[in-house]
Amino acid sequence: MFEARLVQGALLKKVMEAIKELLNEASFDCAHSGILLQAMDNSHVSLVSLNLRREGFDKYRCDRNLVMGMNLSSMSKILKCASNDDIITMKAQDNADTVTFVFESPKQEKISDYEMKLTNLDQDHLGIPETEYSCVIKLPSAEFARICRDLSQFGESIVISCTKEGVKFSAAGDIGTANIKLAQTATVDKEEDAVMVDMQEPVTLTFACKYLNMFTKATPLSPQVCLSMSPDVPLVVEYKIEDIGHIRYYLAPRIGD
Amino acid sequence: ASTQPTLNDYFKSK
User: Fold this and answer.
1) A36 in contact with chain B, both atoms CB, cutoff 8 A
2) Smallest Cβ distance to A252: which of B1, B6, B13?
3) Above 70 in pLDDT, residue A239?
4) Is the pLDDT of residue A257 over 70?
5) CB of A54 within 8 A of CB of A34?
6) Residue A184, CA distances (Å) to A37, A62, A136, A143 in order
7) Which parts of A44-198 fold into alpha helices (H)?
8) Interface of A with B in 55-94 (CB under 8 A)
9) What is the ipTM of this complex?
10) What number of other Cβ atoms are within 10 A of residue A206's Cβ?
11) Contact flag B2-A40 (C-beta cutoff 8 Å)
C-alpha cells in the first residue's frame, strides 16, 4: 500500500507545471524515504530530477517500493481539477495498475477522487556523479526567468559567464547582442532577493534558451534558484521545494561557437 | 555553428 497526503496540494500542482512541458511521461519511484523522479526529455539533452521527502507529507506510507509510470498530460488534467487550497492524497495498492488522487477541500465539504491508469515505462536511469562545481550562483528565481525570457529574443543560446565580479548572461543574433550583468549583492533586506556567487574558477558555458525557459516553469516553487557550473559538464538548475525537497534540471552545454 | 550534445555523453546509464 502506498499513500502520500500533502496538505499543501498546490505544491504538487506547481511541480506538474514545472515538468510537463519537458516530459511526456515519467516514473514516480516511491520508497520508504519518499518519492523520486528522474527522467530525460525526448532528445536526451536535459534531465529532471525531483525529490519529495516523506517528512514533507503529513501522512506517508509506502510498504513496498513502487514504480508508478505516469502519463504527465493525463496527470496534469487530473491535477487541474484540484483547487489551490485542496489537500491532495496519492494512493495505490501494491502491484496496482492504477493510482488514485483524492482532493479534499480545507473544510472537508468536498471530496473528489480520480483514478488514473499507470503505464509501463522502460526509462533509462542515469548515474549522476557527485561534482564539486567551480561556480555556484544563487539568484532570485523571477530574475532568472526574466533574463532567460528577455535574452531568448536575440538568439537560440545564452552564454553564462561567471567570474568573481558576478555573473553575465549574453545572447547574440540577427538583431544584435544583449548582455545582462548581475553583481553579487552586498546587503539585502530579504535573503531571497540576494545574488550570491561562490566561485573557485571562472566558467563560461553556452546553453540552449529553449531548455532554460522550460526550467523556469519551476519559478513558482521557490523564490531563489541555484545554478551550478563547471567547465565542460552539464549545468544544474535547482529550485528548493519548501521543506519537502527539490527539483533539479540538468542541461548539457552547447559546444562550438 | 554549435552542436548540442546529449546527457548520455556525460552521465552513464545505471
Assistant:
1) no
2) B6
3) yes
4) no
5) yes
6) 33, 44, 12, 13
7) 72-79, 141-151
8) none
9) 0.93
10) 19
11) no
**Per residue, what are the HEC states of A29-56?**
EEECCEEEEEEECCCCCEEEEEEEEHHH
Number of Cβ atoms within 10 Å of the Cβ of A205: 22
3-state secondary structure of A164: coil
Tell me the average pLDDT across A99-115. Answer: 97
A215 touches B: beta carbon within 8 Å: no
Q: Burial of A117 by CB count in 10 Å (0-12 exposed, 13-18 middle, 19+ buried)?
A: exposed
Q: Is the pLDDT of residue A82 over 70?
A: yes
Asked if the model's pLDDT at residue B1 lies above 80, the reply is no
Q: How many CB atoms lie within 10 A of CB A84?
A: 10
Contacts of A253 in chain B (CB under 8 A): 5
DSSP conformation class of B6: -
For residue A36, pLDDT beyond 80: yes
By the CB < 8 Å criterion, does A252 face chain B?
yes
Grid coordinates representing A116? Answer: 488514473
Give the gap in angstroms from C-alpha B9 to the nearest C-alpha of chain A: 9
Please give the backbone phi and psi of residue A21, each rounded to the nearest 5 degrees, phi first. -80, -30
Q: Are B5 and A235 in contact (CB under 8 A)?
A: no
Q: Is A121 on the interface with B (CB under 8 A)?
A: no
- Which residues on B lie below 8 Å from A127 (Cβ)? 11-14
> A interface mutation test: which of B2, B3, B4, B9 has the most A CBs within 10 A?
B4
User: Cell 525531483, residue?
Assistant: A50
Contact A256 B14 (CB under 8 A): no
